[in-house]
Amino acid sequence: MTPHAATGPHNNPCAQCGLPIAKPVWSEPVGCRVHYDWICVACDYEFTTIAIYAERQDVEHAIAA
């Protein structure tokens, strides 16, 4: 599990049965997106959600006007 899971979404409802899932079992940053994998212990359904964030500007390489 990456650090994003600790600070990311929690208590997400299961896409199958609707019961809350405390936290994702895995998260993976991919560019400006973070993929979260969830597994419901009640119905054993597995699914992925994707959070899309605005692109970060690299301050070191920023060009001043």
Task: Explain this structure.
There is one protein chain. The protein has one helix at 3-7, and strands spanning 12-13, 20-21, 26-30, 33-39, 46-52. By secondary structure, it is mainly beta. It has one domain. The strands form 2 sheets. Strands 3-4-5 form a 3-stranded antiparallel sheet. β3 and β4 (33-39) form a beta hairpin. The longest helix has 5 residues, at 3-7. It is elongated and about 35 Å long.
What distinguishing features does this structure have?
35% strand, two-stranded antiparallel ribbon, 5 strands, 1 helix, disordered N terminus, three-stranded antiparallel beta sheet, mainly beta, 8% helix, 65 residues
Secondary structure: elements and pairs:
Layout: H1 3-7, E1 12-13, E2 20-21, E3 26-30, E4 33-39, E5 46-52
Task: Write a short abstract of this structure.
This protein is mainly beta. Helices cover 8% and strands 35% of the residues. It has one domain (3-61).
Average pLDDT: 82
The proportion of residues in beta strands is 35-45%
Helix and strand succession?
A: HEEEEE
Question: Which secondary-structure class do the elements indicate?
Answer: mainly beta
Q: Report how far the terminal alpha carbons are from each other.
A: 40 Å
The global form is elongated
Write down the Rg.
15 Å
Number of DSSP E strands: 5
Provide the helix percentage: under 10%
In the residues, how many domains can be counted? 1
| Spatial ordering of strands, largest sheet | 3-4-5
Tell me the number of helical segments per DSSP (H or I, 4 or more residues long): 1
State the low-pLDDT regions, or none: 1-6
Largest sheet: 3 strands, antiparallel
